[in-house]
Amino acid sequence: MNAKGFEIIGVSVDGEKAHQKFIKKYDLKFTLLSDEDHQMVEAYGVWVEKSMYGKTYMGTARTTFLIDEQGVITDIILKVDTKNHTTQILG
Question: In order of start, what are the domains of the chain with their CATH numbers?
Answer without folding.
Answer: 9-90 (3.40.30.10)
